Amino acid sequence: MRFSQLLAPAAVFASTVVAQIPAQFGAGAASNLAVRYGTTLVSPQGLILSKDATASQPTIGTAAALKGTYILLVIDPDAGTFAEVLHWLQPGLTSIANGSVNAAGFVPLTTNAQPISQYVGPAPPLNTGYHRYTLLLFSQPANFSVPSAFAGFKYPNITGFNTANFVKAAGLGPVVAANYFRVINGTANSTTTTSTAGATVSTPVSVAGNATVTVKPTTTTAAGTTAAATTVAAFKGDGAKLAVGSVLGLALGLSLLGVFA
């Protein structure tokens, strides 16, 4: 089964936000998963965060309360020879009992269940470019159990994971909600390209590994006013090329088109 087949539209939110997750996980057709580290909300999707800021387990949730029980996968698909790295596998998630929206604007998902594999914060090797830490929420089947082929994936044995195979073996359905953020260890050069009146301007920017960067979708018109448009930033890391573009419109987040050398 191709992983793209797992990403069917899920009408979870009253106001739907399309999750633009990394390309190898298929077209971004799931709803947005709210992810908050401390006071920092992962928005837009693909936000660059520091290793320190993401060291502790985040709070996750959805725009509206969900019925049923859910399971969360957190994956780094950019681990090179390690294939995918499993950063968290948590079953038994449910919306909080009263279904109320918190101060950050989402209904938290909580659990009393022990994780199958505990949360492990990002730790990308030095000078390996941006790593995309991807959070995938699935409906948890009744009588769920860990497939025997994956029983050994518990911290610290978290490298060599295969999300598509796990989803198939566990009998999971389509992704209900998703999100991702990026972390880099070292530095990378980026070029931000904006269209102005009859011209294209490229501005090189040095991005440090401990910085939080938001690419804003704006251009400057001939009259000097700022208007919403598409801004594309191409980030170059070791062996990786990332293109980040904003998808403007009602309740749409930043989209990511990943092309890897």
What does this structure look like?
The chain has one helix at 163-170; strands at 31-32, 34-37, 40-41, 47-48, 59-62, 70-76, 84-95, 107-110, 131-139, 159-161, 175-183, 187-196, 199-208, 218-220, 226-228, 232-237, 240-246, 254-259. Helices cover 3% and strands 39% of the residues. Strand 12 and strand 13 (199-208) form a beta hairpin. The strands form three sheets. Strands 1, 2, 3, 4, 5, 6, 7, 8, 9, 10 and 11 form an eleven-stranded mixed β-sheet that branches. By secondary structure, the protein is mainly β. It contains one helix and 18 strands.
The main pleated sheet reads as: 11 strands, mixed
Q: What is the beta-strand fraction?
A: 35-45%
Number of beta-strand segments: 18
Q: What structural class is derived from the secondary structure elements?
A: mainly beta
Short structural summary:
The chain is mostly beta strands and 261 residues long. It is built from one helix and 18 strands.
What topology does this entry show?
Layout: E1 31-32, E2 34-37, E3 40-41, E4 47-48, E5 59-62, E6 70-76, E7 84-95, E8 107-110, E9 131-139, E10 159-161, H1 163-170, E11 175-183, E12 187-196, E13 199-208, E14 218-220, E15 226-228, E16 232-237, E17 240-246, E18 254-259
Parallel strand pairs: 1-11, 4-11
Antiparallel strand pairs: 2-3, 2-5, 5-8, 6-7, 6-9, 7-8, 7-10, 9-11, 12-13, 12-16, 14-15, 16-17, 17-18
Summary tags:
disordered N terminus; disordered C terminus; mainly beta; 5-stranded antiparallel beta sheet; 261 residues; 11-stranded mixed beta sheet
